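hey m, so remember when u said the tokens were messed up on ur end? i reran from scratch. heres the input so u can diff it against urs
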Amino acid sequence: MKAYILIKTIGRDTYWTVHANSAHHICLLKTKNEKFYYTDLQTAKNGTIELRFGEYRFFKNHIIDYYPVGYTRKTLLEIDEFRLKHNSSGTIYSLWTNKCQHYVRDCIKFLEIHNQLPTINDGIYRVQNSSDLTLYPKLTDSVDQQAAS
């Protein structure tokens, strides 16, 4: 299964952000049959954390910013079990110690990525459609390269 980190605008139905560290991160998985699944951390209005997992539906007609990560042998069931057992579920959100980026980093460690990909520039790439997501993007798909042109 292929693993990516999807970069989503906080509070909006878009995948664009000025700075990836101030965006919502989603662990995105692409199966051999081309279906996408995700797990992420959401915060309820009272500040309690909820961890989600399921089939992912992309927003229509939006560019997609993402990090390619690599391959995992973990199954969807194992990933969902990881989510259910993760220590941040039900705790209080903290910008410094307990947020979506921390959870996604833990997910990537759990996935035991094989053939982890090197990053070029800042490692963020931009495509027009989910079908264009790849672990081996062209340099011209780099957000930095697109901004320079």
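this time it looks ok to me. Strands lie at 2-8, 24-30, 36-43, 49-55, 64-71, 125-127. if urs says something different then somethings off w ur setup not the seq
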